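Recall the central idea of this unit: under ordinary conditions, the amino acid sequence of a chain determines the structure it adopts. In this exercise we apply that idea directly, starting from the sequence alone.
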Amino acid sequence: MKQESVKSPEQIEAAVYLYGDRLFRLCFIMLGSRADAEDAVQETMIRYMQKAPAFENAEHEKAWLITTAKNKCRDMLRFRFRHPQIDLDELQSFAVTPSESSLLETLMQLPDKYRLVLALYYVEEYRVEEIATMIQRSSSAVKMRLQKGRTLLKEAMRKEIG
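Accordingly, the structure predicted from this sequence is:
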């Protein structure tokens, strides 16, 4: 990352346009609430405006935004006094088919560390090495979390089906 610079309103608007939906999906998967996800994305964009980081390229900018959003979600999860309430009607609106709705619902029940790597790998299509950098873990740790997350997801899906 290069030296910080002032972001113009156009640059901020472009970042929201390019990354807003991706950040929202990630935050929604982590937090299980539309309102909380919107808050996390908003806080991420405020930090983007305040810090005004200069990036070498668009990939670095995207990675910074995702990492910042992930950290904001973790902060929000730390301060929750109760378990997140998932609005099933809202969750189903993100699914195209009933089976996707069931999969999303099950994914939301997984522990944060597995849910995050599964979302980054399968939904956002990041490579293991990129995820490792984002979550500040080794590639082997990410692979282990993917493996364990898949196992937990399969077990939970089997319980729902039968």
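The mean pLDDT is 80.
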